[in-house]
Amino acid sequence: MNSATTELIALVKRADTLANIAGLLGWDEQVNLPPGAAEQRGAQMAALAAVVHTASSEPRIGALLAQLEQNGAAGLTDDERTIVRQARRDYDVATKLPAAFVEEKATQDSRGYHAWARARADNDFASYIPVLEKNLELVRREAAYLGKGDAPYDYMLDKHDPGLTAAAVDRLFGELKRELVPLVRQITASPVTARARTVGEKLRGFPIDGQRAFLREVTGRIGFDYNRGRIDVSLHPFCSGTGSDVRMTTRYKEDQPLDALLSSIHETGHGLYEQGLPADLLGTGLGINAGMAVHESQSRLWENQVARSRPFWRFFEPRWRELFPAQTAGVSSDELYLAINAVEPTLIRVDADEVTYNLHIILRFEIEKQLFSGELAVRDLPAAWLRASRELVGLEPANDREGVLQDVHWSGGAFGYFPSYCLGNMIAAQLWYRALALRPDLEADFARGDFSWLLEWLRENVHRQGRRFSALELVRRVTGEELSPRPLVRYLRERYGSLYGL
Amino acid sequence: MNSATTELIALVKRADTLANIAGLLGWDEQVNLPPGAAEQRGAQMAALAAVVHTASSEPRIGALLAQLEQNGAAGLTDDERTIVRQARRDYDVATKLPAAFVEEKATQDSRGYHAWARARADNDFASYIPVLEKNLELVRREAAYLGKGDAPYDYMLDKHDPGLTAAAVDRLFGELKRELVPLVRQITASPVTARARTVGEKLRGFPIDGQRAFLREVTGRIGFDYNRGRIDVSLHPFCSGTGSDVRMTTRYKEDQPLDALLSSIHETGHGLYEQGLPADLLGTGLGINAGMAVHESQSRLWENQVARSRPFWRFFEPRWRELFPAQTAGVSSDELYLAINAVEPTLIRVDADEVTYNLHIILRFEIEKQLFSGELAVRDLPAAWLRASRELVGLEPANDREGVLQDVHWSGGAFGYFPSYCLGNMIAAQLWYRALALRPDLEADFARGDFSWLLEWLRENVHRQGRRFSALELVRRVTGEELSPRPLVRYLRERYGSLYGL
Predict the structure, then answer these.
(1) How many CB pairs under 8 A join A and B?
(2) Which residues on chain A are in Cβ contact (under 8 Å) with B229?
């Protein structure tokens, strides 16, 4: 690499290292912080945020970028271009937003969160209207500062998933919706749905120590490197950190033993991605994930395609029964498999199964799109939500708490984030069939407890690529085809068709 | 306060906030860090250290100090003077050491640690000689940069305990030694020593969950605020953090149930001090401990005067027996008390009881003094250690591992640190008798499980004073007398005289 690139890398790595410290403080806040220390931690976060901002907006970065970008970045290798592109993204965000705007947004994010929590508790959407209106205004202004004032929703999508546009999502979700709505109707009408519910209720009284031990065995076997990561307990599961210090969380419920397990496998998918990024270039375009959709594809692939499969349980079920002999005595293998793959429409996104989950996302995308196009006013959100819920999920919220007030995202201005969840499902399924085509024995591997081929294939094709490619480019390169909802629909039909006797 | 003071406070608090983040990373490293993440964490610590250094050497701090110090700081209140004095200390350390020296020292500290670990493992003092010589040289240079080149050992003592001098320590330790050596000889000759050992060996198989619960109850009852702190597990117990986020650690051994308990009470003493500093001025002279000796006095007071007393156990013993009925069945109350107060000379400082511990410290102080005066060369350390150990502890190390190689401190250049341990014991005893004089019913409080009077008295007289006074001044103000070893000797004679039938 030339010396300007080397210098640029040192500067962006420094900013990233400081940002990772902020990430660690965030993890610590969720996992360890004494209740009375919130204010002290707030001061630490604020001081560190200022430091990170100073490091990210270091003028020398700007000078190096200007130099490297000359003549269309001619003379740079592809990898150097990837690094320059990502550095430019970060530098523009750090330098183009006026300090007063950043402060206004930080204040509004915090206010918005509390307003949302209150509105949800009181089922009072009216009080939340000005917050959402303000948040939409701030997003439009942010997009304008970054030169994307003409397409603020595209700007938000691109923020979470570099290269993504509303038009692309619209096309993909439209096709998925046409296939998925009837499939869910079929499943719901199946008598198996009621049976799945009964089985789930049989799984009771699983001691947490045993759950922890089993989950540790499973996630370690899959490939999570506990020498370079850990798992703890927090209110909501998440995965944070990168490289050699990846920290997942889960939460245990004695009467929902599959919950901690499957959510941990989900987080393991995220964790494997972060552990698999090129260590020496962390924080550069070569050492950062390709966006939230690809990130989510990794978590979903391990959680759904792998850990909800029969071969996976063929290997782990004996150990599960060994750890919980009394609790599993009255549950057959078929019943366990059914409990793992229970499908039932719900009003609440975070409670949804892997099939109907996608409908919740499509609903939110359609509403966000209309909010940004101006077709929908904030005050009309509840009615629009109700209509869309009926059409997509087949259920009507009885109140806004079960409807438009259920998610935290918009309260902090995180529009355009939801689509990545469903795109992640699509990418996971498309990667899955590509892997199966390359290694027809893949599920036989799983039945022997061997997940190494799949992990190594993902390492090579996804993890080690960092942010070289956008989500759409990555899928094209790895699978040889454009991203499409068809593999996801195929996967759901295969898995749930036979299970629900469709 | 005037506006210059206000501005100065904001700047030093900012530097302190960033330094506290580094402290949290240090805690995390001992408690949580995945084994493979050491290098990544090292990069974070280095980046943060540079940030802290920049914040601490902010030129505006220097300008404000120069302004406030004019005319002998005339016009400032006492509290403002305290703040200015501490800010000056920190600013001089941050600005007077050349960057090249700081780097050289950091490298040498790390090298020194590894050289020490190797030398101890191999019992190879010869390989450690150049490290110690280099460390002594670096300390001399550091003292010189800060204008204390004529008295580097005083500089080091003052670094850990503002205002402390070798002459003062020499006088105090000389007097203590004359009293303590014969007392230990008497105890060692007592047949009770052997019995204490036997009782200790009876305490076996205490489940860790129960130990954790008991220790939590005890430390909470004493006054540690778990709303503003926590306790975790690490290899060596320590206490870190301040204000509303104070984190202690301990380690559990099933066959040494008193170890985790008493060491946690020790850390609780440190923790209470940090929780009791004035929250709004953390990091200034009013919101920082008065030095390591006073810090240690707080841990020792709660560990020794309080938690090794009969009244303390009158209250907690029933609960202890309730939690561990089988394990405690064959242990009488007198035997328990004896196990808690077992005295037996040992070669290893960290294994020493509260009586002989002081001799280990005197030994190290005498050796450090001679190293700095030039009376003793590094290569002659093992022989000097052997002589001093025989004289003071009454035991001869069979090798350097049991002697001069046992402590980590010097490997990182931490000379002048040991004395604070013993000074802490002296201060604790002197505070203790003052408290007893003011509240003769103090031990009756303990027997009822009420520790509030003592805590509030310490809060008012020690914790809330921050760094207003040096250790020696603080003792003078609170007890009305100069610091002296006599209260410590009196306390040890009272407690151990009756127990060992002297």
Answers:
(1) 83
(2) 34
* Best CA proximity match to B79, nearest among B486, B483, B464, B471: B464
A456 — contact with chain B (CB < 8 Å)?
Answer: no
- Which residue, A65, A96, A127, sits at the end of a domain? A96
Judgement on whether residues A316 and A462 belong to the same structural domain of the protein: yes
Measured in Å, how far apart are chain A's first and last C-alpha atoms? 57
Residue where the block lists tokens 């068709």: A497
DSSP state of A349: G
Is the residue at B407 inside a domain? no
Side chain identity at residue A36, one-letter code: G
A11 touches chain B (CB under 8 A): no
Q: With contact defined as beta carbons under 8 Å apart, do A16 and A277 qualify?
A: no
Crossing angle of the two packed helices B452-461 and B419-438, in degrees rounded to 10: 120
Nearest residue of B to residue A282, measured between CA atoms: B40
Q: Please answer yes or no on whether B244 and A17 come within 8 Å at the CB atom.
A: no
**Tens digits of per-residue pLDDT, A441-498?**
999 999 999 999 999 999 999 999 999 999 999 999 999 999 999 999 999 999 999 9
- Min CA distance, B272 vs chain A (Å)? 15
Sort out which chain B residues have CB atoms less than 8 A from A37's CB and list them. Answer: 228, 243-245
Contact B247, B232 (CB under 8 A): yes
pTM: 0.94
Are A44 and B225 in contact (CB < 8 Å)? no
**B185 within some domain:** no
Residue with tokens 């000689």: B129
Note whether A400 and A455 are within 8 A (CB): no
Find the residue in A nearest to B279 (Cα).
A40
In chain B, what residues touch A230 (CB-CB under 8 Å)? 32, 34
Whether B216 and chain A come into contact, CB under 8 Å, resolves to no
Domain termination site, one of B81, B96, B111: B96
Minimum-distance CB partner of B37 among A35, A51, A245: A245
Judge whether A490 and A426 are in contact, CB under 8 Å: no
Report the gap between the CA of B21 and the closest CA in chain A (Å).
7
Q: A207 and A322 share a domain?
A: yes
Picking from B19, B20, B24, the residue whose alpha carbon sits closest to that of residue B41 is: B24
SS3 of residue A240 by DSSP? strand
- CA–CA separation, A343 vs A356, rounded Å? 7
User: Any idea which residues of A carry the catalytic annotation?
Assistant: 267
Same structural domain for residues A92 and A210? Answer: no
Mean pLDDT by 10 residues, chain B (502 residues): 92 97 96 95 94 97 97 90 97 95 92 94 97 97 97 98 97 98 93 89 95 98 98 96 98 96 98 97 97 98 98 98 97 95 94 96 98 97 97 96 96 97 98 98 97 98 98 98 98 94 88
Closest CA to B76 of B8, B172, B145, B16: B8
- Please tell me whether the interface predicted TM-score (ipTM) of this complex is above 0.90: yes
Rounded-to-5 percentages of helix, strand, coil across chain B: 70, 5, 25
Would the CB atoms of A14 and B244 count as touching at under 8 Å?
Answer: no
How many domains are contained in chain A? Answer: 2
Q: Is residue A303 part of a domain?
A: yes
Return the residue of A nearest to B230 by Cα.
Answer: A34
Q: DSSP string of A141-204? A: HHHHHTT-TT-HHHHHHHHHSTT--HHHHHHHHHHHHHHHHHHHHHHHHSTHHHHHHHHHHH--
User: Could you please report the per-residue DSSP string of A5-50?
Assistant: HHHHHHHHHHHHHHHHHHHHHHHHHHHT--GGGHHHHHHHHHHHHH
8 Å CB contact of A32 and B229: no
From the list A21, A39, A230, the residue facing B25 with the nearest CB is A21
Quote the domain boundaries for residue A8.
1-96
